[in-house]
Amino acid sequence: MFLWEVLAQWQQSQVLPPPSNILSSLIHEASDGDLWKHLWATLRRVVICFFVAMTLGSLLGSWMGISRRVNAWLDMWLIVLLNIPALVTIVLCYLWLGLIEAAALTAVIINKVPNVAVIFREGVRSFNSRYHDLSKAYRLSVWHQFWYVWVPQLVPYTMAAARSGLSLIWKIVLVVELLGRSEGIGFQIHFYFQLFDVASLMAYSLSFILVVQALEWGVLQPLERRARRWQSSATTA
Amino acid sequence: MLAAGRVLRLQLDKKSFRSAETQKVQTVLQNIVLEVQDQEFVCLFGPSGCGKTTLLNLIAGIDSEFEGKLTFGSPTIEDGQARLGYVFQDPLLLPWMTVESNIRLVLPKSQQSSDLPWRYLDQMGVGNVRKSFPGELSLGMARRVSLARAFAVQPQLLLMDEPFVSLDQQNAEVLRELMMEVWLENRCAVLLVTHDLDEAIRFADRIIFFGNDPTSIVRESLIQTQQIERNSLIRSEIRQQLVEQN
């Protein structure tokens, strides 16, 4: 950081602003500028896409994990979707649905669903069949089986999908905003790129990196610690 | 129709498996008729790998693919479904739930507020691990919890699949004593799978011997002496008789 500061101050280059400039730009945008408006717009999109993609992906993946027939039927489509570049989906969604919010959200969701589905499919396939025996012998209700036997086995897979999901989704949301939205971090990055204002561009990027970090520390990690309580107690025994 | 007091009748014509590798169908169990009366302790004795566990799984409903008929009976059984307890070969506790939650999970609604399950846990000597996770328990302790769980559901039929294997002699002996103690207080029908004849002699009202290929019942022996009266002398006499009968 210090080296960067010294180097940037010495070079006085426009493409590599010193960290102090980025920070002052961030403070300026937060107090006088539109940072909060754009940050909120992006965050809202990320949250919507995250929950929709996680829900659809987990349902689809679990279904494919349970049924061989469904898997045989959908597997090829899953691979196709996994390998379509995000950019293609985004452009096609804008072309087909128009430059509207729904098109932006749909594009991001389509990009993320196959990823979640693949992770959940593996999760369901790795279910321990002995726990199934237990459920049958003790005549557990479907609800009890789902909530106490299946869901806990899917926790590690849910965490993996959530982590990779969050990072992938916010990156794609930025591209979506850059290509066809008039607010959001992606839009601002595009705007400052045209002005060649690298400090503001980096300030906006930094603002969202901080948000994602806050989500990781404030939401994902506490959730994971809670879900894995039984593992830590086993290792300290 | 089931006679009053009969808990189970299994008429097994044939049970086959398809080998995953060769795709060949192999019959493992054939022509078995098994009846268990209420409060009767039945031991299924036979060599390892002869299909005894498969038989228990058929009765438990874990595996329903077989030719034959399975009927549960007696007035105590609800909705044509037997309330079963199953002590598996491994303790099979869900590792993400505490001992208490593991037991609560299998309890029928009517027993959720009863303190009976926790009495069994105390009786098995593991009342102090109620709030622990299974990963914190030794194998012996986990086995005790697994036994307490099976008794806790107040089963009409209790299935046990070699519940004392892979424990050291001393531990196994203590657990046998405890199991017998709890059973004598709460008599239910039991099917216990074992390949240890002494174990069978100690517990059984009736021993069913399995053999042949595909496996079927070779013979049955009734033991008249009450379990509590079977001291080591009587047990060796019973053993002698069984060997002579063979």
The helical percent of chain B reads 25-40%
Number of strands of chain B: 9
Biggest pleated sheet of chain A: none
The CATH superfamily name of chain A is MetI-like
Q: What's the topology here?
A:
The complex is a heterodimer of chains A (237) and B (246).
Chain A: H1 2-11, H2 19-31, H3 35-66, H4 68-83, H5 86-97, H6 101-125, H7 129-137, H8 142-180, H9 185-195, H10 198-227, H11 229-236
Helix pairs in contact in A: 2-10, 3-4, 3-6, 3-8, 3-9, 4-6, 5-6, 5-8, 6-8, 8-9, 8-10, 9-10
Chain B: E1 6-18, E2 25-37, E3 41-45, H1 52-60, E4 67-72, E5 84-87, H2 99-106, H3 116-123, H4 139-152, E6 157-161, H5 169-185, E7 189-194, H6 197-203, E8 206-211, E9 216-222, H7 232-245
Helix pairs in contact in B: 2-4, 3-4, 4-5
What this model shows, in words?
The complex is a heterodimer of chains A (about 240) and B (about 250). Chain A has helices at about 1-10, 20-30, 35-65, 70-85, 85-95, 100-125, 130-135, 140-180, 185-195, 200-225, 230-235. Chain A is mainly α and about 240 residues long. Chain A is elongated and about 75 Å long. Chain B is of the alpha/beta class. Chain B has 2 domains: about 1-20 and about 25-80 and about 155-165 and about 185-245, Rossmann fold (3-Layer(aba) Sandwich), CATH 3.40.50; about 85-155, no CATH class. Helix content of chain B is about 30%, strand content about 25%. Chain B is built from 7 helices and 9 strands. In chain B, the strands form 2 sheets. Chain B has a 6-stranded mixed sheet with strand order 5-6-7-3-8-9, with helices on both faces. In chain B, strands 2-1-4 form a 3-stranded antiparallel sheet, with no helix packed on it. In chain B, a hairpin with a 6-residue loop joins β1 (about 5-20) and β2. The mean pLDDT of chain B is about 90. The interface of A and B includes residues 139, 140, 152 and 235 of A.
